[in-house]
Amino acid sequence: MNKKTTPREILLDDRAADEQMRVRTRRSFLTGGVAAAVGIGGYAWLKTRDGAGGVPWPQRLVLGWNEKLAHAYLSDARLLPTYSLADVGKLRPNGQFGLEGDLDEDEWRLKVEMGAGMPALALTLNDVQALPKVEMITKFCCIEGWSVVTRWAGARFADFTRKYFPPGQKLPEFVFMATPDGGYYVGLDAKSALHPQTLLAYEMNGEPLEEEHGAPLRLVIPVKYGVKNIKRLGLIRYADTRPADYWYERGYDWFVGL
Amino acid sequence: MAKILKLKHLAAIRWFHWVNFPLLFLMIWSGFLIYWANDEYAVSIGSLQVFHFFPDWVYNALGSAHRLAEGMALHFVFMWLFVLNGVLYVAYTIFSGEWRYLAPQKWSAFRDAWSVVLYDLRLRKQMPPQDKYNAAQQITYTAIICMGIGSVVTGFAIYKPMQLYWLAWLLGGYEAARLWHFLLAFGYVGFFVVHIAQVVRAGWNNFRAMVMGYEMEPAKDVAQELGAHE
After folding, report:
1. Which of A122, A182, B99, B204 is spaced 20 to 30 Å from A147 by Cα?
2. Distance from A257 to chain B by nearest Cα, in Å?
């Protein structure tokens, strides 16, 4: 701070003191007025920018940095807390997007697309169930702010990828998943999808998945908010570029990591 | 006759203060948009619900329903500016030595603060002796910094409750951290109400000093002070 322009004390005769106060008051209020105008103008500018899902691009930029930070911290070695059976609550089904039509479970197939030039697969539930079965009791956190401890069983997506993704090929950075009708879809970073606690789940609380919870197969990914835990999987596509995401297009974060 | 202009608030402190005001407002507003999505808190006596945070008419009046995504996108951007301003403020008060005026220096500050409250409520005739700020102000201005730290810590605990579950665990779990985060927001609103009332009561000179820095006093007070010390 400049000691010359803002001394701790200024002793003046009456008139000079009043004049000093006037000058300094005017100057400060002008500065303050300009600062307030810049702040309000800046905010108005921000709110009128375009961006993905209606979120102004400068905000998307910062949210992207948050994402990088969270992504850097995410580790396969850092497992999320697991709970005991006594902690298990009742998970309320939330969101019916992509589940509107009836599903014939005998006809159901899980389509798997590896990328350009590589074969696509159509798997049955038995194919998924042939992978090592993993049971876990984890917390399901909704983006609305509530959470429920739930018991799941299924195959690790990491095991699934090891078995079905062509060996020798470079693993893409992203995974896209969608319901059979394409009505709901999520984009995932491969690191989160391959986390050891990410399951292709076919059982909930010891029973086969109920329809409202995504029968016959759903994603359970406790490192993400519930919105990424897509129900009634119909398609898994490995992707080199960041895939579309239902809620991202509606103003939410793409990463929504927990 | 002479007058003396005394620098009451350093320029940096004034900037931190006025920058914090809209930032904190924006954090509370966006937090309110987020809270709507799971507005589970209420004050109850037994099974009787006395007040629900918040009744529908509040959301309707403020037009704040169904704006979770917008709230999150604001909260997780402006949080960095709020934290940065707070960190710079605390660092500045430490390096400038200003913290000596702002933080209570003796245990008797708590007793003095109570005397200030009684004085303000006109239950006591005299203010206890004070430096730049009275003991009640010192405790409040220190508490508000602790609250800020509390908001940031509980905020991160509920922002990444899985990756930072150790933090949530230290705070008593996700639910407890979320409740504290909410209560602290209420604390700021409470602080704001009292703060504005006190500023109005203290008058124009005091308010002006927060904008331009100086307060003017008749120099005879200086002479009297000098006389008193002889």
Report:
1. A182
2. 7
